[in-house]
Amino acid sequence: MYRKTYAKINHNILTDNIKEIKEKYPDYKYYIGVVKNNAYHHGIKIVNALKEGGINYFAVSSLEEAINLREYNTDTPILILEPIDLDYVYDCIHNNIAITIETLEDIKILDQMKFSYPLKIHLKLDTGMNRLGFKKRKELEQAQKIIYENPKLQLEGIYSHFATSGITDKQWDKQLECFQELTKNINLSEIPIIHMGRSLTLVNHPKIEFCNGIRLGIIMYGFSQSKKNPTTLKEKLRESKKHHIQKKLQISETMTENELNLKTAFSLYSTVMSIREVLKDELVGYNASFKIEEDSYLATIPIGYADGVSKKFESVIIHNNTYPIVADTMDMISVLVDKSIKKGMEVEIFGSQIPISEVTSKLDTNAYHLFNQIQNRVPRIHITNGEEEEINY
Ligand SMILES: Cc1ncc(COP(=O)(O)O)c(C=O)c1O
Questions:
Q1: Stretch 1-8: mean pLDDT, rounded?
Q2: Model confidence pLDDT, tens digit, residues 21-45
Q3: How far is the CA of 1 from the centre of ligand 1 (A)?
Q4: 390 in a domain, yes or no?
């Protein structure tokens, strides 16, 4: 690493998170780890830590991501969540990759193709998200019939995706009903993997009886949004409002006490690159946007908005003290410090002293967006049992 800016990814935390999830929710056969976009930007190398915790299937967005994942994991099955160009299905067979099929037309095309080995297919149903999937029962049934009659097509799974948490809305229940209606003439017990839920489904609803798979994304990375029983007056009021809405809308049962002990594995650091003394009334940064109020010191840190970090992060930690970010540029931020701060000191952007939840609230965003905004140009230091390996993705 030449530029001293890096993300640390703790593999032991990820493994422990999966073990914790499986211990609290043991009733699934397939724990499908969603590792799209370079594993929510943690770095795809984490797949082995996830597998060690108990993930036994992976899901990605594209064939590129699936083939890249195969380089890190040779045996765990992989599902591509988006439909692919059918010209490339041979690459999928060759790499033991299952594909998503969402239209009858695609099944008809596959039926005409010649394969030496069976192609694994998951049929995706559109139950209300209106993004991808079969919407008509007859077409779904016809697709299933074609697959069952062709020995080179293997129906490995059937799935859908929930648009909402279903805590204070009826959409979740409607999607579940829609799935049951679409599949009412299909014997689900003949299909190896049925998966509808994502992280929010796992923690907020009782297990859907006929689903034996669950797709885990953000929860693996330490964010469960699981609720504990309300203790403060504010929490109790919120809970009672929620119950009122649930009753009014006749929403199905949701679980309130499902506290998971999860940690975040992703922390972000840089280093003090330059220090300058500044005097009262001097100006800092582009557009001379910050005015120094009293004589002090400025630290220039090599991380900027091209890495995903800006003035909106508000502060950093250096040597256990909090200092404000007063200016940002594409590659650097300026931090107002004191005399104790020296060139070469480590700077925490978020990690053990600035929790991710604090940053997301400052940025008015969520963990999905925050992880995805930390760019791949920041090297990932993967740490397993204290051993570090730097990977530039
Ligand atoms: C189809 C599908 N399943 C599962 C997930 C994982 O969702 P989450 O991170 O909320 O668990 C995603 C994420 O975007 C998705 O698109």
A1: 96
A2: 999 999 999 999 999 999 999 999 9
A3: 32
A4: no
Q: How far is the CA of 67 from the centre of ligand 1 (A)?
A: 20
pTM for the model stands at: 0.93
Instruction: Residue 132: give its domain's CATH number.
Output: 3.20.20.10
Compute the distance between CA of residue 163 and CA of residue 176 in angstroms, rounded to an integer.
11
**Three-class DSSP category at 161:** coil
Q: Looking at the structure, do residues 160 and 73 belong to the same domain, yes or no?
A: yes
Range of the domain at 277: 266-354
The answer to whether 105 and 77 have CB atoms below 8 angstroms apart is: no
CB contact set of 139 (below 8 Å; sequence gap of 6+): 103, 104
What is the Å distance from ligand 1's center to 182 Cα?
21
Pocket test for ligand 1, best of 198, 200, 262 (most atoms within 8 A of CB): 198
- The DSSP code sequence of 308-338 is T--GGG-EEEETTEEEEEEEE-SS-EEEEE-
Partners of residue 274 on adjacent β-strands: 300
Is 51 within 8 Å of 32 (Cβ atoms)? no
Residue closest via CA to ligand 1's atom 7 equals 217
